[in-house]
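Q: I have 282 residues here and want to know how they pack in 3D. Can you give me a structure?
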Amino acid sequence: MYKILSKRRLSAQICEYVVEAPEVARAAKVGQFIVLRLHEKGERIPLTIVEADPVTGGVTIVVQEVGKSTREMGDHFHAGESVLDFVGPLGVPSEIENYGTVICVGGGLGIAPLYPIACALREAGNTVIGIIGARTRDLLFYMDRMEDACDEIHVMTDDGSIGRKGFTSDPLREILSSDRPTDRVWAIGPAIMMKVCAEVTREFAVPTTVSLNSIMIDGTGMCGGCRVEVGREAKFACVDGPEFDGHEVNFDLLMARQQFYVEEERCALDRYLKSQSKGVEQ
């Protein structure tokens, strides 16, 4: 069992947890992830490691409550309680070097895994330009942290409720179209956002890294559920990634695979919500 040391609500649908997992905390590197399971009947949830403290043994993760398991976690798992499994660190760490000037683009929940990458890139000597965005102000978080991690920050919302109205790809294109040199781009967020950002950077021949952790299930390469096509070759997001060359990812296939279990996920959430309304534990 792994104790929840703290829980902080970042928005109506997003919570930050610090989970006590000393072995994970000691071994974790930027870009890696964990897989947690709430209880014996719970599904496996892959989540990027935001921070890891080898002194306290605390591992920070950010969870958006969208499906049955994440809703259950938000409703019933609080500081002082425990989750059954917390496996990691998994995946290949980010390639952190001094590239020069890098742009870090985060959309929605992708801001959580982007934050430690931005910190590590700046610590390595890079000039870091941050671009973060969400559909609306209520879904935007870590603005203060990203401001501290970046030399420059651009905030976007689809509805213009904070920052500029538009998409994260808008300032990305503006910066790349200017005379400012850019050596590398990280783009993490919804698949469609990463696809658009990769299409923009392809025009300017800027190497671009994307993270595909959102399609994982097993997290160890056994189930094949996170199979993706990269450079016309089959890869597993969990063991070969989660980071890949954004110009080589077949995003259309990736987005099609994301729809495989939509009906099952909807049914599971409906059953959970009905059980909660009747006061029945899952």
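Q: Anything worth noting?
A: The domain at 2-90 is CATH 2.40.30.10 (Elongation Factor Tu (Ef-tu); domain 3). The chain is about 30% helix and 30% strand.
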